Amino acid sequence: MPEKLNIIESTACPLPVENIDTDQIIPARFLKATKREGFGENLFRDWRYNADGSTREDFVLNHKKYSGKILVAGRNFGCGSSREHAAWAIYDYGFSVVVSSFFADIFRNNSLNNGLLPVQVSDSFLQILLTAIQAEPETEIRIDLEKQTISIGETGQSESFGISSFKKLCLMNGYDDIDFLVSLKDEIHVFEEKTGRC
Amino acid sequence: MSKTLFDKVWDAHIVKQVDDGPDVLYIDRHYIHEVTSPQAFAGLEKRGLTVLRPERIVATADHNVPTLDQHLPIRNELSRLQVETLITNCRKHGIGLYGLNHPYQGIVHVIGPELGFTLPGLTIVCGDSHTSTHGAFGCVAFGIGTSEVEMVLASQCIMQPKPKSMRISISNRLGKGVTAKDLVLYVISKLSAGGGTGHFIEFAGEAIRALSMEERMTICNMSIEMGARGGMIAPDETTFSYVKSREFAPKGAEFDSAVEAWKQLKSDEDALFGQEFTFDASDIAPMITYGTNPGMGIKISSAIPDEDEVLPNDRKGLGKALAYMNFERGKPIAGTSVNYVFVGSCTNGRIEDIREFAGFVKGKKKAANVTAWIVPGSKQVEKQAEEEGLLRILEDAGFALRQPGCSACLAMNDDIIPSGEYCVSTSNRNFEGRQGPGARTLLASPLTAAAAAVTGRITDPRTFL
Ligand code: SF4
Each residue of A16-60: pLDDT tens digit? Predict the structure, then answer.
């Protein structure tokens, strides 16, 4: 069961690359586990480490100056493979929010199902955000799920973001779709009978 | 009110609509495999729930299996554990499994249609993004994550906001040596890797109607590479004759009445789509990708593009992609020396693809520098290739057929392209490292793969036709 989410205040890691696919987030060769935990270790594996396992100094997660629970990434984040391991890896690493100006559909669903909040902002706000973080890594970002706003500490610049009220309720209360679906058992059965499916 | 094909299938499966929330959608067919299901079963058990409709689930082992010596125990311990976990879960919950060494084993999106589990008008999900393949039969079929696999196991339903609709019409016919793969790579190169996000795409028009089911599957398979939730093609006589006599498809009178219902599965004349695009098939030529997303495709006869020639979406990433691929702007892509060729995957691992490849290499020889992995999509494809004498043709030309699985499409097993090497691949993704760390993938059709395999270079297959 995911943790309840509402206000998140944290510094952020900037990753201004577009079209980050889930093969980059977690390469297929690390999908062999049968549990959900532990994928954070290999988050962005091939960008984060050299082939010999040493860390790559040029990658943002290896920069000491950046830290926090918020990942800010370029447009079309999470495209490609449907592997939920991508959302698990990001969450397991310690992020609770990903900000981008566009998310791939399956990744968005997977995140929402795991208590990882995808915050979609405009391209221009994304730029402002990235610039602010890069200029001052200590910049605090505040996300208010209930009000659906994201704001930048010092300057107070903010933007609102969209989320379905159903999903918002789920995230704020830490429950998921399965509880709801199981409660619909009778309606599902009626549908099956009505449409000759059982 | 007039409806699109997508509306018709979707709406017929709504169990409940949640206010300002997703629809609760009934799922007719749930395909599962060893990589994205173990955590779903574990979650289900943790909640004390059971599988609601095991008879609607079909399981196979494909992503992580070796493509040589499948009769031996899997050597990689983690892969073996995943496959064993699948067996245990299927047994425990009464789910039909076509696992390793079963005569029906294969890539989940190849065996579903082949065995007649995929039928027009169904809703189909699988914990794999290329579930869109089944849309070729007029299904609403889409990939889901593991939490959603768990939902479907528990309730046979899923919660999804209804996607928007898009129609892509292709007029005229494809030329000789130009395949369905070229068509779809062409479309993605025009609309970009994110161009279909949030949409279900219906493919229509003369060029689509003229395609076989295998070709239609290739198109719908890759609709996800435009970011779309799925692709669809209205079923017609081509569909019905493919489905007829498949092992698990309806038979006799039941089949006939099913066909009557399936004939209704088409967009109404005046149905409205969120977006519409039209392309001309006669403008399409053999395609190949030069970059690190499937939208970075060009005609083989073209040069590596410059910033001002690519889609706005790819402009920023072009330098990084070209550096990874070791390509230079303005240089022709044809003639690039290639040491690896991969034919297979749920995009192009069907019998027609093996036939096409074999037809091309017949009487020719594999280039000495090339390592070629020809991997059938299923046991049935393997068997058919042998029965049709394709195996012989391949062997005479210096090629061997491996055993079915996803193989070098995602390089989870031992089929890994070495770092820095180019691979002309009939699969669907050219992301960095997709075929192994540092591997450089060039997506193309089986014909283009064949031309590369015999020349050792990127070659327009039409030069041989
Ligand atoms: S062949 Fe490739 S794309 Fe298809 S199901 Fe297997 S891994 Fe996924």
Answer: 999 999 999 999 899 988 888 899 999 999 999 999 999 999 999
Q: What percent of chain B has pLDDT over 90?
A: 96
The fold of B287-464 is Aconitase; domain 3 (3.30.499)
- Strand arrangement, sheet containing B140-143: B96-98, B57-60, B29-32, B123-126, B140-143
- Domain spans, chain B: 5-160, 287-464
For the residues A53-71, what does the mean pLDDT come to?
Answer: 94
Long-range contacts of the stretch B239-247 (C-beta < 8 A, 24+)? B239/B120, B239/B136, B239/B137, B239/B138, B239/B213, B242/B113, B242/B212, B242/B213, B243/B116, B243/B119, B243/B120, B243/B137, B246/B113, B246/B114, B246/B115, B246/B116, B247/B115, B247/B116
How high is the ipTM of this complex?
A: 0.91
- CA dist B440 and B420 (Å) reads 6
Homologous superfamily, domain B5-160: Aconitase, domain 3 (3.30.499.10)
Q: B408 C-alpha to center of ligand 1: Å?
A: 9
Q: Which atom of ligand 1 is nearest to the CA of B410?
A: 7
Name the residue of B31, B406, B417 to mutate for ligand 1: max ligand atoms within 8 A of Cβ: B406
Across the interface, do A87 and B16 touch by the CB < 8 Å criterion? no
User: What's the pLDDT tens digit per position in B67-87?
Assistant: 999 999 999 999 999 999 999
